[in-house]
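Hi F.,

I've been meaning to write this up properly since the lab meeting, where we talked about keeping a consistent format for the predictions we share between groups. The idea is simple: the sequence comes first, exactly as it goes in, then the structure tokens exactly as they come out, then a line or two of notes. No screenshots and no reformatting. I'm using this chain as the first example so we have something concrete to point to.
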Amino acid sequence: MTAINAIAEEGPIAEAEALNDRLAGLDLAGRLSLVSGLGGRVVFTTSLGIEDQVITAEIGTHRLPIDIATLQTGRLFAETLSLIEETESQYDIHIHRFEPEKADIDAYAAQYGLNGFYESVEARHACCGVRKLKPLARALEGAAIWITGLRRGQSANRAETPFAEYDAERHLLKVNPLADWDLEAIKAFVSTNGVPVNPLHQRGYPSIGCEPCTRAIKPGEPERAGRWWWEQDETRECGLHVAEEAAAIAAQ
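Output, unedited:
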């Protein structure tokens, strides 16, 4: 980063830090309402997991001006696809679907094989890049604020998740309104408010991604242990929330 770029980013970083402090004292509805009124396009990206369903429920219930998008990777569970339509119907909302480009899928399959992600970390990251990161870039085009369902309790890698931060690679504010919620609080909200959730959660899947890359967890395992379970790195991520991965997509 050049000195000029560093100076230019001081403003957004300070803005994110101030917003982080403001969000800390609010409940979820208050956090989302505050963020939706800051100006500019606000996008919430949902994987239809239980955390994201809580955020969707608040957006729909309070009719907040927040666009909701999901990455329809082409490898999702049938239960996840059904939940998209159920959620739209219950809250009278539209969830925008962003799919990978066929040319990218074909190029990936030609190089690694359709299920080549099992063979190496490089191949798995390449698959996530094609099916998730590039569609995410399209979902966030023109956005000033990106809302996610990240929580500190999901994994050690996410333990320091703030309520708000500046995403320097995407040049926007990233807001994590559930950062301080634990899984029990999430489940209580869902039960009290009749929020529709993925039936796979009841079958041992606390974190749900693409079907070939997700398994049920064993008793005592961390919430995200079932994601890319064949890899040994305990901090493994798909790249959506990893700065280096976002920068690589931006360069393309």
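Notes:
The helical segments are 3-24, 28-36, 50-61, 78-91, 102-112, 121-139, 183-193, 243-251.
The longest strand covers residues 41-45.

If this format works for you, I'll send the rest the same way.

G.
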